[in-house]
Amino acid sequence: MKKKRAIKQTRGVILATTFVLAIAFAVAFLSASVITTMRDAADSIDANRSANAVQAAVSSIKKKLGATVRDNAVWDDAYTAVSSPEADEWIYDNWGSTSEDYPLYDGAIVLDATGAQIKAYLKGEEFDAISAFGPDFVRRAIEASGNRGSDPLINFYPFSGRVMMLATMAIQPFADQPDNGGYKSLTFFKELTPEYVAAISEDFQIEGLALGDTPQPGYLIRALHGTDGQAIGYLNWPEQRPGSSVYEQVKPRLAMLVGLFVLFLLVVVSFSAMELRKERAAAAKASHDASHDYLTGLLNRVGLIRAIREAPEGSSVVHLIDLDGFKAVNDTWGHAVGDALIRLVAEKLATVHPDVVAAARLGGDEFAVIQQGSASPVEFGDRIVRSLAEPFDIDGRTVEVGASVGFAAKTADLPELEIIRRADMALYRAKEDGRGQVVAFDDQLDKEREELAFAENRLKTAIEQDEIKIVFQPLIAATDGEINGVEALARWVPPTGTVSPEVFIPLAEKSGLIEALTRKILLGSIRTVSCWQSLELSVNVSPIQLCNPNFAGEVKKMLAEEGFDANRLILEVTEGVLISKPDRARRSIDALRAVGVRFAMDDFGTGHASIGTLRQFGFDKVKIDRSLMSSNNGEVLKATIHLASALDLPVTAEGIETEEQARTAREAGCQSLQGHLCGKPMTVEQLRDRLTPDARPGRIA
What is the CA radius of gyration of the chain? Predict the structure, then answer.
């Protein structure tokens, strides 16, 4: 009995021991499983975090290089310079020499629209970029040059065993301008050197980040792909494996110190909570960056739309502000001063009035402000104009700009983008009306825009279908009344009635049709008068066209193709273009005068043209404005003509309507006369009859 009881007790102890051991093993197994899972999770979190950091680093260096090439490609001076005779020197001075020791890029490449290399520099030295980077680079450069306004194309390329990051964009003007046959492309490239990668590693806290030709075993990797999708390099960095490190530390003590196991769990939970806080902070920063301007800290377009959506109806007004004269600041002082000015303007707009509830920068020199309060929107806008008219002090420089303002009120039935469009329409009108204007949106602006669009389309059709005809007004010698030249004039007589040149010429300039119109008039008049070898041909040139860098080349090509003597062609220009854009005008004038084309200053005596202006631009003749002829002020007329005569410039008097005016002009010293007395604008048939040897009805005694 005792033996059986002892066996039963032993069996019970064994069973209990086994049960306890089983529970102990189960607890140990489950604990080990939980710990292992937590260890692997911590390792994975850190690996994902570091992978995301590497991805962010790659995106950041791409964005930085893209921003650098955009700042240099969207630049009026660059757009003009790369097509000028001094292009090679300019490219080297501005980009080539800079690449020798510049942190943002190691080289610069300029290709034309066909992909041919113009200039390429690596560390300040010229090299063959096309051979170095291959045909795919050329293809992408051609693609970029044909897509003005798009984002830069950014890719990685292999280069002599190294990895280069290239950003390519069309070299284009800042303001809208007609496309004249494709743009040249600008490429900046940066080598991913060990030092550069080490700097990225430090900036983004990625310990041990390095660039290699192959994946490094046991390391985390991110492949850098070329344009063909193949990997050309690998970013390798070691896994930190924080979970495994902690596990190795606590493993020897797990059996004896359960408390340390619990503490470990708390540490892991705390670590996870800390990572969660970091992720939330990163998400909040990303959200802020997505809705705010990086330069000023103001809202961007996305943030403005959100602010308009949240603003109350009835009391909210959106003001759009465009700086007047900002481009001149950039051109004169450089982009650094321009950026400083933008920041100062942003600070001033945010506090310009107590009714400001939100301020935004929409890009370039365009801003927006949301007004809520009882102040009149017009008074509010005037406050902005006055505030921004005050001089800014930037590093000892006194910088002055102005502002134009357009505004629209928020109402219940208008979406946010429509409110912005309306304010933009009002701003457009304010800029048209002159600097320092404040304009409110009204429905008439939309109506006028529709009417303008219709008129522009009608004018375009008229040019394409030869509705605009050329007439010729004679210029006669003051001494004997003989016709010595004609001025080509455009006339538009549609079925609906005659349209004055004072209407359709400004319309053509505003709509970008002036080049097509002038080209048609110039070519048609050259072909018409080419048979009369003794006649000079005068044609008015728009200031917009004279400032086009391609204009001189087009005229020279036209003269060559038509076999027209360049010395017979006189291009008439007004002084306004010489004052507003003298450098561009001078380049076109010099290029055409080199082949024999002559230039006349039109409307002389009505503006601010000085002796210096006449000498600087080398005019061949001047035309006295008709207002001087009809003013009956002989002394002013004589003084004006004597000024031109002192510079040995022939003078043509316009607006000769009477014999008395003709006599006055002759006595004052004019060499040529033009006006209805000398001959009204006439068709080519009428001109031919006038030039017939047996018929001289246009001679003036």
Answer: 38
Contacts of 467 (CB under 8 A, 6+ apart): 461, 492, 493, 494
Separation in Å, CA 568 to CA 553, 555, 674: 18, 13, 17
- Where is pLDDT greater, at 128 or 7? 128
Q: What angle do CA 662, 667, 672 make, to 5 degrees?
A: 55
Q: What are the two backbone dihedrals, phi and then psi, of residue 440, each rounded to the nearest 5 degrees?
A: -95, 145
What is the rounded average pLDDT of the residues 680-700?
72
Q: Tell me which amino acid residue 252 is.
A: P
Which class for 20: exposed (0-12), middle (13-18), buried (19 or more C-beta within 10 A)?
Answer: exposed
Those residues with Cβ within 8 angstroms of residue 463's Cβ, 6 or more apart along the chain or in another chain? 513, 516, 517, 520
State the average pLDDT over residues 668-682.
87
User: Which residues sit opposite 188 in a β-bridge?
Assistant: 108, 167
Sheet holding 231-238, edge to edge: 210-212, 231-238, 219-225
pLDDT of residue 317: 92
101, pLDDT greater than 60: yes
- Which residues is 334 bridged to in the sheet? none
- Rounded Cα–Cα distance for residues 51 and 56 (Å): 9
Q: Residues in the chain, how many?
A: 701
DSSP string, 647-659: TT--EEE----SH
Residue 288, class by beta-carbon neighbours within 10 Å (0-12 exposed, 13-18 middle, 19+ buried)? exposed
Token pair listed for 156: 């990685």
d(CA 288, CA 299) in angstroms, rounded, equals 9
Look at phi and psi of residue 127 and say left if phi exceeds 0, alpha if psi is from -120 to 50, else beta.
Answer: beta
User: DSSP string spanning 392-417?
Assistant: EEETTEEE--EEEEEEEE--TT--HH
Contacts of 116 (CB under 8 A, 6+ apart): none
Residue 415 · residue 332 · CB < 8 Å: no
Measure the CA–CA gap between 234 and 222, rounded to whole angstroms: 6
Q: Which two tokens stand for residue 456?
A: 């522009």
Dist. CA 48–CA 55, nearest whole Å: 10
Please measure the distance between the N-terminal and C-terminal CA atoms of the chain and give it in whole angstroms. 164
3-class DSSP assignment, residue 191: strand
Q: What is the 3-state secondary structure (H, E, C) of 302-350?
A: HHHHHHHHHCCCCCEEEEEEEEECHHHHHHHHCHHHHHHHHHHHHHHHH
Helix (H) or strand (E) holding 571: strand 569-573
Strand 162-170, strand 185-191: pairing:
antiparallel
Task: State the pLDDT at residue 589.
Answer: 87
411, 471 contact by CB (below 8 A): no
- Residue by residue, DSSP assigns 220-255 as EEEEEE-TTS-EEEEEEEE---HHHHHHHHHGGGTT
Q: What is the spatial distance between Cα 643 and Cα 609, in angstroms, rounded to a whole number?
A: 11
Per-residue model confidence (pLDDT) at position 95 = 93
Q: What one-character DSSP code corresponds to residue 181?
A: S
At 189-201, the pLDDT tens digits run 999 989 989 888 8
Query: Pairing between strand 392-394 and 210-212?
Result: unpaired
The pLDDT of residue 42: 66
Contact 509, 490 (CB under 8 A): no
Residue 215's alpha-carbon distances to 47, 131, 240, in angstroms, are: 16, 28, 17
Quote the pLDDT of residue 393. Answer: 92
- Check residue 260 and give its pLDDT: 66
- Give dist(CA 471, CA 685) in Å, integer: 10
DSSP state, residue 405? E
Burial class of 365 by CB neighbour count within 10 A (0 to 12, 13 to 18, 19+): buried
For residues 470 and 546, give the distance between their C-alpha atoms in angstroms, rounded to a whole number. Answer: 21
Evaluate whether 64 touches 294 at the Cβ level (below 8 Å): no
Residue 71: in which H helix or E strand, if any?
Answer: helix 2-73
